[in-house]
Amino acid sequence: MRAIWKYQASLRTEPVKTFEMPAVANVKHVGMQAGLVTLWVEVDGSPVLGTEERTFMIVGTGHPIPDGTVYVGTTQDGGLVWHVYEVKVPA
Question: What pTM value is reported for the model?
Answer without folding.
Answer: 0.88
